[in-house]
Amino acid sequence: MQAQISHQRPTTWKRPPVIFTHTLWRWAIYTGALIYLVLAVQTIDIDWQRVWLGLDRGWKFVEGFLTPDFTTRWRDIREGLTESLTMTVTSTVAGILISVPIGIGAARNLAPMPVYLACRGIITLSRSFQEIIIAILLVAMFGFGPFAGFLTLAFTSIGFLSKLLAEDIEECDPSQIEAIRATGAGWWQVVNYAIQPQVMPRLVGLSLYRLDINFRESAVIGIVGAGGIGATLNTAIDRYEYDSAGAILIIIIAIVLVVEYSSSYVRRWVQ
Amino acid sequence: MTRNSSTPVWHYRTRTQTLIHWLGWFSLVALTVFCWQLMNENTIWAFVSDAPDQAADIGGRMFPPAWGYIDELWAPLWDTINIATLGTLMGVAIAIPVAFLAATNTTPSTRFVRPVALLVIVASRSINSLIWALLLVAIIGPGLLAGVFAIGLRSIGFVAKLLYEAIEEIDTTQVEAIRATGASGAQVIDYAIVPQILPAFWGISVFRWDINIRESTILGLVGAGGLGIQLSASLATLAWNQVAMIFVVILATVVIAEWVSAKVRQAVI
C-alpha cells in the first residue's frame, strides 16, 4: 500500500500553462503561429545591397542627430514650430469647447435617448479614422496650410474628449445630483452645481493630455500638407539634410517632454 | 424687521479666488486669440470659403466606391497585417529588457541604468511611427522592412512604459517567498515576477498590436509598404472612388483588429 502511493506521487513539478490550458489547442495555436511567422517573414524581401548602402546613410543620420544644425534652416524651423504650436493651442481649445456639450449629451444619466444616440454617433464618427486620413480629406477641401491641420486636430479631439468626459459624468456620485435636485434646481443648475465640480479636475487633466497628443500629432500631419513642423521635417529629410532633421527631432522630443512633465505636474496639482 | 447688512451671503468662491479664476480665463482666451491670429496669417480664406463646394465635389467622386478595386488590395492588406504583427513582435522583444531595466525594483542601478532605459522609452514614445518610417525609408529604402522597423521602434516605448509600471506594482511578498527558497536573481524574476506581470504583458502586447494595425495602414504614404502605398497612388491620380474603397478596407480592418484585441484581452485578464 505504502509503495503504491509513493509510486503515484509525482516526483517532478511542471509549471502550469498560463493561457491555452487545453494541450491540443495549445499545440495547434503554436503551430499556427509558427506557420504564420514563416509566411510573414517571407513577404519581406530584403534588398541587402540597398540596406548595406543605407547603413552609411544611417550613420550619417546618427552623426546629424549628435551634431544638430539649428542655424542653417532656422527660419523654416521657426515657421514650422510656430504653426505647430499655434495649431495645437487653438485646436485643443476648439476641441474642448465643442466636446463639452457633446460629452454632456453622451452621458446616459443627463441626456434623453435621442440626444444620447446622436452624440454617441458623433463620437464614433470622430474616433473611427485616424488623424492622417482626416488630414488628407481636409487638406483636399480647405487647401494646404495650418488651417486644415487645426480642423483635423479639433475634429479628432472631439471624439477623445467627449467619450472620456461622458464616461466620467456617468460615473458621477448620484447622491450629490439628488441633493442638488432636492433643492428644486433645474437641469442647468444640476449640471453646474452637482456635475461640474465632480468632473472639473478630470476635464482639466484630459484637456492637458489632449494638448500633449495634439502637439505630437501636429508634427505628423504636416507630411500630408496640413502645415506644422512635420512639413519642415519632411523637407529636411527629402533634401538629405540630416543635421537639420536631427535638430527638428530634438526640438520635438524636448517640447513633448516639457509638455508631458508640466501637464502631469498641473494634473497632480488640480486633482 | 430690516435685514442686518452684515449678514454674510454665501458665495461659490471668495473674492480672491474669483479674481484668480477670471485672470486665468482671460489669459487663456488672450492666448487662443493670439495663436489664432498667428496661425491664420497665411491662410487663404478664399480656399476656406470654397470648402463646401470642394467637399461636395470630392464626396460626389467618392461614391460609389470602386468595389472592384478590392482585388488589388488583398496583397497590400496582407503586407499591412504582417508589418503590424512583426513590428509588434520586434517592439515587444526589445521592450521586455528595457522594462526590467527601467523598473525601480528590478533595475541593476537606479543612478546609471534606469535613466538610460527611461531615455530610450521617451525617445521612442515621442516620435510618431510615421516619422520613424520617414527616417527609415530614407535610410534603408522603401519597403516592408522600413515599416516593420518603424512600428517596432515606436512600440518599444509604449510597451516598456506600461510593462515597467506593471513590474513596479507587483506584490513583494511573492518575491520574498521565492527568495527565501534560495533562488538566484534570474530565478526570482522567472518564478516571482514573470507570473505576476504575464496577464498585463499579454494585454499590453495585444493592445499595441491593435494600435499598430491602425498605424501600419498609413505607413505606405511615406513609402513603407502596405495599404498606404495604394492610398498615395490613388490620391496622386485623384481617383477618389478608389480612395473611398481603401478607406472602407482600412475601417473594416481596424474594426476587426479592435474586436480581436478586445476578445483576447478579455480572455487573458
Strand content of chain A: under 5%
Largest interface comes to: A-B, 57 and 55 residues
Distance linking N and C termini of chain A:
67 Å
The CATH superfamily of chain B appears as MetI-like
Q: What top-tier CATH class of chain A fits best?
A: Mainly Alpha
How much helical structure, as a percent, in the residues of chain A? over 70%
Helix percentage range of chain B: over 70%
- Give the name of the CATH superfamily of chain A: MetI-like
The assigned structural class of chain B equals mainly alpha
Instruction: Tell me the number of helical segments of chain B per DSSP (H or I, 4 or more residues long).
Output: 11
Strand and helix order of chain B:
HHHHHHHHHHH
Key structural traits:
heterodimer; A: 271 residues; mainly alpha; MetI-like fold; 11 helices; 78% helix; 0% strand; extended; B: 269 residues
Write a brief caption for the model:
The complex is a heterodimer of chains A (271) and B (269). With 271 residues, chain A is mainly α.
Topology:
The complex is a heterodimer of chains A (271) and B (269).
Chain A: H1 2-8, H2 23-43, H3 48-66, H4 74-105, H5 113-128, H6 131-142, H7 146-170, H8 174-182, H9 187-218, H10 229-238, H11 242-270
Helix pairs in contact in A: 3-11, 4-7, 4-9, 4-10, 5-7, 6-7, 7-9, 8-9, 9-11, 10-11
Chain B: H1 15-39, H2 45-49, H3 51-62, H4 74-102, H5 113-126, H6 129-140, H7 144-168, H8 172-180, H9 185-216, H10 227-236, H11 240-268
Task: Explain how this protein is built.
The complex is a heterodimer of chains A (271) and B (269). Chain A is an all-alpha fold. Chain A has a single domain, classed as MetI-like (MetI-like fold), CATH 1.10.3720.10. Chain A has helices spanning 2-8, 23-43, 48-66, 74-105, 113-128, 131-142, 146-170, 174-182, 187-218, 229-238, 242-270. In chain A, helix 4 (74-105) crosses helix 10 (229-238) and helix 7 (146-170) packs across helix 9 (187-218). Chain A is extended, with a radius of gyration of 27 Å. Chain A starts with a helix and ends with a helix. Helix content of chain B is 75%, strand content 0%. In chain B, helix 4 runs antiparallel to helix 5, helix 4 (74-102) packs parallel to helix 7 and helix 4 (74-102) packs across helix 10 (227-236). The model of chain B has no long low-confidence stretch (mean pLDDT 87). Chain B has a single domain, classed as MetI-like fold (Orthogonal Bundle). The termini of chain B are far apart.
